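Box 3.1. Reading complex inputs
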Amino acid sequence: MAAKKTTKKPNVSADELKAYYKDMLLIRRFEEKAGQLYGMGLIGGFCHLYIGQEAVVVGLEAAAEEGDKRITSYRDHGHMLACGMDPNGVMAELTGREGGYSKGKGGSMHMFSKEKHFYGGHGIVAAQVPLGAGLAFSDKYKGNDRVTFTYFGDGAANQGQVYEAYNMAEIWDLPCIFVIENNQYAMGTSTKRSTHSTSYWERGAAYGIEGEEVDGMDVLAVKEAGEKAVAHCRAGKGPYILEIKTYRYRGHSMSDPAKYRTREEVQKMRDERDPIEAVRNMLLTGKHATEDDLKAIDKDIKKIVNESAEFAKESPEPHLDELWTDIYATEVPQEA
Amino acid sequence: MATEILMPALSPTMEEGTLAKWLVKEGDTVSSGDIMAEIETDKATMEFEAVDEGTIGKILIEEGTEGVKVNTAIAILLEDGESADDIDTAKSEPASAPVPADKEQSSETAPAAGMSHPEPQVDTAPDWPEGTTLKQQTVREALRDGMAEEMRLDEDVFIMGEEVAEYQGAYKITQGMLDEFGAKRVIDTPITEHGFAGIGVGAAFGGLRPIVEFMTFNFAMQAIDQIINSAAKTLYMSGGQMGAPMVFRGPNGAAARVGAQHSQDYAAWYMQIPGLKVAMPYSASDYKGLIKTAIRDPNPVIFLENEILYGRSFDVPELDDYTVPFGKARIWREGDDVTIVSFGIGMSYALEAADKLAEDGISAEVIDLRTLRPMDTPAIIKSVQKTNRLVTVEEGWPQGSVGSYISSVVMQEAFDYLDAPVICCTGKDVPMPYAANLEKHALVTTDEVIEAVRKVTYK
């Protein structure tokens, strides 16, 4: 783990710090709850948790503005919560209920929000990368200054279509931030076993795309890098690559026994580099918050998460007629 | 309040498992993320983590127990300040079974085939009013005119693909379009089908109306994941929030002597996909009318063209805004003895066969489906009710062909009207050979259509 870029004096207000703490904690608690509901059989199929990677989306959302777009893979719960989607709607989609973002028809891997400019939720590794470049293409075509955050993992980074997208994004100067969430394991295969040169962002050089590596366990470092990337794209300078080094504490999906790494490796990361603990310490040592303040936040979050679980259990299964809806559109969907 | 720790489901298919090992004992405190037990599922041995903080009050299932059903209480967790005495009050979060949707609901709104059908409803209105001035135009010109008209009407329509701009189109379909619409809307791509198909779909998600040209649909196999998984399924997966209003187009099927990898007919492949619409026109007027409808359609449309047809001329109506609706077949020739159904270049064989059969006094009704999804099956049924015999014609392979689908629909909906088995004339079940004589035999031929008609009419 390259953690050289630890932030010195945080150039950030107490309120911002608190907001990041809250946003990251919401993702962590939400995902723990999702894991629990999965264990109870209320969530089925595949369920990929984001625990450990929270600082990536929270840091980048802090750099985004209204109207910016985001798209990601199937490990998508954190992205949705971070961009402001309703935890109730997300959890109810996980349980396959009518109140879910996709009316129960998408599931964990396939959720969308036109309102929050969240374009999924894609289950085919790396397919979202050209799609993200295409979203950026639409903004460039329309002549606005929006940017698209296109998230993918270190596993996806070996797919050919990533480089097809890089090439076109650069020759057409698309305002696309390619965010490589390098959590070091593509399912059970470590980057060292799958990849000759594991510094993925450097591959951008072959396409003329600038980029950098970022410490993904440090939300402030992520935010700072995000702001730089956003400025680059908004200025019309084309795409930018952020390789964010992060770590997932849980298995690839719920059914992953995680035998490809040691328990100690995971525990060490949790103990020494946890992104939420880091902000918590910053808040306490900087005297921006008291233990009681943080306890109150914890309580609020727990309430939100419990409510989402209740909503997801109470919401009815979709009406059987839903089987036959949304296959064809009758009118062109309007932009949010 | 004390809570029960339940046997977790640790894989999508797990119903029970073995509690292999406890890593905590009664009286231990645990916090979120601590490993409490090892559980063997049907797939692997998994570590089971604590979700809440507390003290293990009691272990209810001994380690080594096999066949522990999911959601069985396996231990009791006490919160701060509780003792083992509180165990009786333990409550589990009930793993309530999903609220069953109303059993009275039916899915009969489904467009199910196989239901007994009343009189088929067929739209037989002519494509253009009587007296309309017609001009002779090639398929190539009509297709280009249709696209250009739509691009003039809607700024969000653009075309991208290999050699569409400066080269003027590998098959000259986009001739002159760069000059008229500029490089912003007529975009040359690198040779990277998977990538540019995905960018096209993303642009459609973002509110544009892309036309993605494949130099041939054979190359679109590199992009088929984006076409099906991204373009066709997103509307459904998003609960109707967003989709891909766009057109994928290009020549499909055999040209002449281009070998196995450049000669495949994908009609049956794409026709299978819910979420896609599929057009495969034959005549120039249909190329023009259907491409305009395709561009305006709010769904992803697969528009299958044919290189051999590009240079053929047909009557095209001189109308300001000529469109052809999807799902409406065209009856090219009325007849009483047999129905021949085809689409795309298959129509050449069907019409030629009908001409020759007429010389022998056999009257064939020839139907051009024009679109395969939606498919105008009522028009086929209605015709079969009259002729009692059916032959289908296509260049694609026999197994899982368009004809085999039509045949099944007709069997289910018009079985009593059939006086002979349906015959599907298709390309041969071989990769396309290069040698001229072999290639001719690999494709469907007019003689085979004639032969099939004689068989079903017993003449």
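In summary: The radius of gyration of chain B is 30 Å.
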